[in-house]
Amino acid sequence: MRFRLTLTTGALFALSAPALSAVDPCAAARDPVRCEARQAALKTCAAKRGTEKQICIEVNTPPPDCRRAQDPPRCEAQQRAHEICRGKAGRELKQCLRDALPKPAGKRPAAA
Question: Which spans in the chain are helix H?
């Protein structure tokens, strides 16, 4: 009986922790304002699929606050690259971002 009570109590505590985080998923976010805007964008764009949904979320979500980033210059470079590549999707987007982002200083170009 005691084992069953302990097991039940442990299960209730284990289930309550995720329930608390589900109430406000942005409470522990680094940028809570952007997190809340992204949550609203996800609700707004819920009916769309694929590239259309991706573009909808991108349009309705503000850019990150680079002042809070671990590497602010890199964050700003990524924002510029996303501006340059706006409207592209899939492989075309990935290639555009690769071309637009500055190359890391520590890496050498591949030998041909």
Answer: 2-23, 32-44, 50-60, 72-84, 90-100
Q: What is the pTM of this model?
A: 0.56
- Cβ(57)–Cβ(38) under 8 Å? yes
| Residue from 19, 18, 36, 14 nearest 27 by CA | 36
Please enumerate, as own/partner, the contacts of 90-98 that have beta carbons within 8 Å and a separation of 24 or more: 90/51
Q: Which residue has the tokens 């909808």?
A: 56
73-101: per-residue pLDDT in tens? 999 999 999 889 887 878 998 999 999 98
Rounded to whole angstroms, the maximal C-alpha distance in the chain is 71
Q: What is the CB neighbour count within 10 angstroms for residue 45?
A: 19
Please list, in sequence order, all residues whose beta carbon lies within 8 angstroms of the beta carbon of residue 59, skipping any fewer than 6 positions away: none
